[in-house]
Amino acid sequence: MPTNSLVSVIIAAYNHEKYVAETILSIINQTYDNIELIIIDDGSSDCTAQKIRELEPLCCRRFQKFSFETQPNAGLCTTINRLLAKSEGKYIYMIASDDIAKPEAISEEVGFLEQNPDYVLVVGDNQIIDAASKIAGWDARQHLHPYHGAEHKTVSSYWKKHRRDVDFNGKNFGDYYSLLKGNYIPNGYCIRKTALDRFVFRTEAPLEDLYMMLQLSKIGKFKYLDKILFAYRIHGNNTIHQKNKMKQMQKQTLMYELSHSSDKAKILKHMKKTKNYFKIKNFISLSRTKLLGSKTYTLELFNKTFTFKAK
After folding, report:
1. pLDDT greater than 60 at residue 20
2. Which of 4, 139, 175, 237 is packed most tightly, with the most Cβ within 10 A?
């Protein structure tokens, strides 16, 4: 059934002068009509802001509303919060300033959400492209490989092999406890604004996509569409290749999530059952003692200690 609900496309731009124009053009070329585009440049030190301004006349003609501003570098969490505060759409479509949305992406995803009110997020598969926008693939370690002969020709192909506990076409896609093992949701998702309004991004949880997925999974269901709706760009500055940084951000994010959870015992019970949890050995030590006649858990996590009663 056709829909014309307003969709807010938000872009937190940072040092992507080589790619940001292609990102914006991919939104201009969407088959879906009713879009507002909101961009904040987060203190880029290159010509990203200039590239965006060059497209401003075209954006003003294409979109119901176009907003662009620059700010001193504040970080991704703060920038996303500001972008969401400016958004007026029923749905939010997030895209990084170096990626590309396929023309039918928003139309396909909004169409699903309109027909399925119990879902909060929908996403399709991701093509993999290189710095020159050439289609590529991944090897077993997520390194770029020529498309022909690549072990994984899409992002979902990689995750379906490495997360066999998740059925991408089943009910546990986007399940909270599956996400505690790590984020496997592809990029290019459309989300209900009412769901995003129920929490804010925290600098204490710096891996913003994992934190967001955990919060959304508590609110509603996720849907995977088995079609390529997005192009995920791999280049020299991707955070995905900064393994130590990613590991530390993941630790901080999960520590924040656990420390603010109302059901720590259930989370920890699940964590103990999970083999190769985060592929980090000895990162968690859990003991249970008797304190004043009650069962109490003491958790040592990332050099911090939490004590709480079991439910």
Report:
1. yes
2. 175
